[in-house]
Amino acid sequence: MNQILASYGNLINLVLLDGILAYAVWLALSANMFSFATGGFMAIGAYVGVVLTMRLGVPFPLAVVAAAASAAGVALALGGTLLRLRGDYFALATLAFTEVVRVIALNWESVTGGALGIVGIARSTETWHLAAGLGAVIYFAWALRRSHIGRAIAAIRADELPTAAMGVDIFRYRLALFVTSGAVTGLAGALAGHMNYFIGPNDFGLLRTIDAISYSILGGIGVLAGPGLGALVLTALPELLRFSSQLREILVGALLLGAVLFLPRGLAALRLPAPSARRALAVEKGLP
Amino acid sequence: MVTLLQQIVNGLSAGATYAVFAIGFTLVFGVLNVLNMAQGAIFMWGAFLGLASVIHLHLPLPLALLPAMLGSGALGVAAELAIFRPLRLRSAHRWMGLVASLALARILVAAAQEVFGTQVVRYPDSPALAHALMVGGVRVQVLQLAIAAIALLLMLGLAALLDRTRTGRAIRTVAFDPRVAQLVGISVDRATLATFFLSGALAGAAGVLLGALFNAVSPFMGENILLKGLTVLILGGLGNVPGAMAGGFLLGVIEVLSVGYVSSAFRDAIGFGLVFLILLVRPAGLFGRAEAARA
Fold first, then answer.
1. What's the CA gap between A80 and A74, in Å, rounded?
2. What is the rounded CA–CA span in Å between residue B262 and residue B252?
3. Given CB atoms, is B22 within the 8 Å cutoff of chain A?
4. pLDDT tens string B197-241
5. In chain B, positions 222-281, which contact chain A (CB-CB < 8 Å)?
6. N or C: which end of chain B has fewer CB within 10 A?
7. Phi and psi (nearest 5°) for B237?
8. Which H/E stretch holds residue B135?
9. Which residues have a Cβ under 8 Å from the Cβ of A185 and sit 6 or more positions away?
10. Does B86 reach chain A within 8 Å, measured CB to CB?
11. Residue A192 neighbours by CB under 8 Å, 6+ apart
12. Does the beta-carbon distance from B99 to A106 stay under 8 Å?
C-alpha cells in the first residue's frame, strides 16, 4: 500500500482533485448551465488560499474555507448578473470571466507574483484532504438528487417553461447551484494551490476549464458516478500509458470525441440497463 | 497625432485579419446556431499550410492563400461531417457541439505539433513586403497594405458569394429557417457543407495573414485568436456577418490604443471587459437589433 502511494501519490492526488472539479462542473450542468468559469473560480480559490497562508500566516484549514467563500462570493455576483443571459451567451460570458481573472493574475504582481507566480508554497494538502473533499461533494450531490430541490433541478433541466409555470423559481435554483459550484471549485483551487510548491496564472486557464468540463461529459452527467469516472479515466489513463504529450492530447481528444458521438450518456451509462422511467426524464431532449 | 494615426494603421491591419477570422466564425453560428470551437485550430492549420506553400512550393504570399484555404476549408467540412452533423441528427444538446469541437481542436493542435514541431516558425524574409512607405509621417508597410487589401477582397468576395450565387442564396435560406429551405427544394446538407467550407477557408486565410503580419506561426496560435474571435462575435452580435467585420476592425484598433495609452498588460483584459459589458447591456451586439438575441 505504502509503495503504491509512494509511486502513484501524485497521480492519486490529481485524480481526486479533478474529481472534485468534475462534480463542481456537474452541479452547474445539472441545471443546464454550461459554464467556463471553472478556471476563474479555481484561480480565485488558489490565490486567496495561498496568499492567506503565506503572507498572513492564516492556518491552512481556515484559508481553504476562506478561499471557498471568496469564490462563492464572486460566483454570487457573477451569477446574479450573468444568469439572465441564456445558452451560448452565458457560456461566452463565463469564458470572458475566466480570461479576465487570468489577466489580472498575470498583472497584479504585488499579490500574485505576475507571470512568475508564487513559489515556495508549503505542501499542506494531504491525500486525505482531497479524498474527504471529494467524498463530501459526492455525498452532497447524492443527497441533492434525492431531495425536492433535486427534483426541481431535474425538471429545470428537462424543460424550463412548464417548470416555471409550476411555480419553480428557476433563477434562484440556478443561482444557488452556481454559487455552490463556485464554492466547490474555489475549495479545489485552494487545495490545488498547496499541492505543488508553485502556482502561476496559466495553471487555471481555459485548458483547465475545458478539462474539468470534459470529465463530466465523458463520464456522463445523468449518473452520479459519471463525473468521478470521467475524471479517473481522463486523468489516470494518459499518465499510466506514458505517451508523449502530443499523443496523450490526441488520445484524450479522441476519447472525448468518441464519448460525445457514440456514448451520449457518458461512460457511466455503459454498464447500466435500459433507462428506467425515472431516469427517462433526463434523457428527454437528448440530454446526456 | 502622428502616433495616434500610426497606431490606428497598425490596429486596422491586425483588425482586418480578426475580421476575416470572425466572419468565418459567425457565419456558422448564423446559419446553424452552433459555435465551432475548433475554428482556432483550423486557423492555425491554415497558417502552417500557407507557410509550407511559401517555403516548399515557393509560392508568393497571396497565392499561398489558395492551398491554405482549400486545406482549412476541408477541415471545416470534416468538422461538420464528423461532429456537427451526427450531433444534429441526434438532436443532441447544444453543449455537446461545444465539447466535441473543443476536443477536435485539441486533436488538431497535437497533430500540428507532431507534424510541424512545437517551435515558432517564421515566413521567409521578403524585402518587397517589408518595405515601408511614409504617408504623412505614418509608416505603412507594404505587407500591412497587402494584408488589408487581401482581407477586404476576401470579405467582398464572401459578400458577393452570399448575395449573388445559388449557393449563397441557399446558405441564407438555411440561416433563415432550415425547414423553409427544405420546402423550397434546397439541399440543407449541401448548404451546410458549403457554410463549413467557407468558414474553414476564411479561418485558414486569416491564419496565413496573421502569421505573415506578426511573422510567427506556432501550433498554439489558435487559442488566442479563438478568444479574440469570440470577443468580436460578441461585439458584432452572434451570427451577424457585417457586425463581425466591423467588430474585427474595432477590436484591432482598441487593442493598439489600449497598448499605447493604457498598458500592454491589460490589452486582453480590455477586450474581455468589453465582452462582459456588451453582454450585460446589449446582448445582441453593438450593431444588432434586440430581437436578434438568441437563446
1. 10
2. 15
3. no
4. 999 999 999 999 999 888 889 998 988 899 889 889 888 888 888
5. 223, 227, 230-231, 233-234, 238, 263, 265-266, 268-269, 272-273, 275-276, 279-280
6. N
7. 95, 130
8. strand B132-135
9. A21, A24, A37, A38, A41, A42, A45, A71
10. yes
11. A17, A42, A45, A46, A125, A199, A203
12. no
Q: Which residues pair with B109 in a beta bridge?
A: none
Q: How far is A217 from chain B (nearest CA, A)?
A: 8
Q: What is the 3-state secondary structure (H, E, C) of chain A?
A: CHHHHHHHHHHHHHHHHHHHHHHHHHHHHCCCCCCCCHHHHHHHHHHHHHHHHHHCCCCHHHHHHHHHHHHHHHHHHHHHHHCCCCHHHHHHHHHHHHHHHHHHHHHCHHHHCHHHCECCCCCCCCHHHHHHHHHHHHHHHHHHHHCHHHHHHHHHHHCHHHHHHCCCCHHHHHHHHHHHHHHHHHHHHHHHHCCCCCECHHHHCHHHHHHHHHHHHHHCCCCCCHHHHHHHHHHHHHHHHCCCHHHHHHHHHHHHHHHHHHCCCCHHHCCCCCCCHHHHHHHHHHCC
pTM (two decimals) = 0.87
CA dihedral angle for residue A247, residue A249, residue A253, residue A255, rounded to 10 degrees: 60
- What does the pLDDT look like over A210-252, one tens digit per residue? 889 989 888 887 788 889 888 888 888 877 777 777 888 888 8
Which residues from chain B sit within 8 angstroms of residue A220, using beta carbons?
Answer: none
Find out whether B52 and B211 touch, Cβ atoms under 8 Å.
no
Chain B residues with beta carbon closer than 8 angstroms to that of A254: 103, 107
Q: Which helix (H) or strand (E) holds A222?
A: none
**What Cα–Cα distance (Å) separates residue A217 from each residue in A86, A233, B98, B127, B210?**
20, 12, 11, 51, 34
Q: What is the DSSP letter of B152?
A: H
Residues in a beta bridge with A199: A118
**Chain A residues near any Cβ of chain B (below 8 Å):** 29, 34, 81-82, 85-89, 91-93, 95-97, 99-100, 103-104, 106-107, 206, 210, 213-214, 217, 245-250, 252-254, 256-257, 260-261, 264, 285-288
Cα separation, B47 vs B210, whole angstroms: 8
Q: Which three cell numbers stand for residue A218?
A: 465523458
Question: How far, in Å, CA of B63 to CA of B170, rounded?
Answer: 29
Band (A137; pLDDT cuts 50, 70, 90): very high
The shortest C-alpha distance from B174 to chain A (Å) reads 20
Give the sign of the dihedral formed by CA B285, CA B288, CA B289, CA B295: negative
Residue B121 has pLDDT above 70, yes or no: yes
- Helix/strand/coil percent split, chain B, to 5: 80, 5, 20
User: For B243, how many CA atoms within 13 A lie in the half-sphere containing its CB?
Assistant: 25
- Listed residue (A153, A179, A152) closest to A81, CA to CA: A179
B269 to A100: CB separation less than 8 angstroms, yes or no: yes
Query: How far apart, in whole angstroms, are the C-alpha atoms of residue A131 and residue A5?
Result: 14
Across the interface, whether the CB atoms of B99 and A253 are under 8 A apart is answered no
Q: Measure in Å the smallest separation between the Cα of B102 and chain A Cα atoms.
A: 8
Does an H or E element contain A122, and which? none
